[in-house]
Give the backbone structure.
Amino acid sequence: MPGINEVAVLAGVSTATVSRALSGNGHVSAATKSRVKAAAVELGYVVSSNASSLATGRTKNVGVVIPFLNRWFFSSVVEGAEHSLLSHGYDLTLYNLSGNGDERRSVFEHFLLRKRVDAVIAISLELTASEVSSLLDMNKPIVGVGGPLPGVRTLSIDDEQVARLATEHLLSLGHRSIAHIGGNNDVELDFHLPTHRRVGYEAALEAVGIPIDPGLFAAADFTLQGGYRAAKQLLGNPRKRPTAVFAASDEMAIGTILAARDLGLHVPGDVSVIGVDDHELSDFFGLSTVAQFPAEQGRRAVEILMDQLHPDRRAPASNIPLRFELIVRSSTARPGG
Amino acid sequence: MPGINEVAVLAGVSTATVSRALSGNGHVSAATKSRVKAAAVELGYVVSSNASSLATGRTKNVGVVIPFLNRWFFSSVVEGAEHSLLSHGYDLTLYNLSGNGDERRSVFEHFLLRKRVDAVIAISLELTASEVSSLLDMNKPIVGVGGPLPGVRTLSIDDEQVARLATEHLLSLGHRSIAHIGGNNDVELDFHLPTHRRVGYEAALEAVGIPIDPGLFAAADFTLQGGYRAAKQLLGNPRKRPTAVFAASDEMAIGTILAARDLGLHVPGDVSVIGVDDHELSDFFGLSTVAQFPAEQGRRAVEILMDQLHPDRRAPASNIPLRFELIVRSSTARPGG
DNA sequence: CTGAAAGCGCTAACAT
DNA sequence: ATGTTAGCGCTTTCAG
């Protein structure tokens, strides 16, 4: 593994020039630059990121902290971030903070702070004030995805509006008895996302004068199984069966469709179902939903960090609110249709 | 951010001693060791991994290369590896090699080789001979998960045996007309996994004298949708409908269950279905399957690397073949039952 | 058991 | 435009 020295020798210049030619910092004549590059290629030279980091204080690496990896939303955000990071010449190191407090503290103290990363992306994770400030004190920008973090630039969809949109879709079809499957306390996650969605749902109903019926709410854990169980409950009672269900996640909505089927109900004939996410399975199940775009969210988070890390580069307009979009498939229709 | 110097001063020793006390290399009297540790804690000192790596040549970081992240198998392996790595004091940096050849080469040349990692875990990815040897040349151990890599220690279940086991389960229930949904060329992935499973399926049939009927094979892409479509095909023809289906992945098996349902067939009454994986949704669908344990595979991969990275440490018996296990749920039963 | 000092491989002033 | 020269913060001989 050749060092910067052999390159310098082969190109007949100093190591400083090699460094400049290869990094693009400082001026180097076109001629020498190409000579250096040729030499580097010939030798198969590649900089030692450690030496470089030590000298510059920058690591070209960002840390991503995340509570789970094997869920559609999280892994999609990470994928988006990874792609974008790669294209900026950055690496991504992953910290799975699912563990309890101990593991979590250890990650913060021994890993993130080891000067391994230039910045961190926190996905659906509520960092404590002290965690945030210790990072900020070290001059490491943070951006959150999926929920507000005190004192941190955060990307997240407007959950209340998303829920409103879904509910309004149902209302516009003529539904008046609309149930909601939301989150239980366990899933309140760190950001009260379930509450926001419930609030949006209720707001949409109230806006058209429909009273909130607590009997039309059920809590679940955002999974397909959970949604199935909750829907059985909601749809099983023929006396007060709603004509439509708004589930706070697509997985729960799919569970609802399956539950309806098992109850002998037809979707959307007997009951309309809408979710939130545009999960990879939603298209298959014909589920109407309000899509969000996690990979794009990951990408956007990276853009924001790059702007902070390289204040010189022209910041692309970066305050567009996060996109969401109603996707109507075959699980929603006029009641009694 | 205090450096090793301030710790040395506060503890009244030299930086060399601090280094030894904190890293555990070399002898330090118990007394000074604890004094140093106290000082380090008091100052909130944490080593600079870059400086340390530069000096030692070790990074305490392993690279994981992977073709996708948002699939159950991959993200589970990564989760398992991450946990294990963390407990060994290692970080994990993630490289998503889904892209085409260009992006892939760039990862290899500019990232992995940048001396960022001490080792690499390749998940279901066929590295080229030159990729492998360039890593090995730099003395970076590699371990593969999910398929054999030339010249590399690899972890993977015995796909042929897995398929045989699944098929034998069906046979033992009395099925004689057993269809198989395997992979198409796109999914041949890098490792001919679909072929191995098909071979195992055929071997099981032949062992009991059942001729292979090409009409009972269908190819799909390992997804739920793909399985659904293939199953519609296989089960839709009443003249030669099999009494059981062995799908090469749980997602396809679930698609098969849904297809059967839509065809008005009862599972397992009219058709038994078995898959491979024990996917997170399988339990919900009552799917019988041959489970594999991806998180454990990730963990095991890390153990193997640690053995190579720290040859001194007592290697835990490490040649247990990868575990798989038949899980019988409600999707399989005697034919006509 | 502990200290002094020489790097690890690069970058960034500072010169020229 | 290019070369010289100090470090970046730690580890590790080599002495003692």
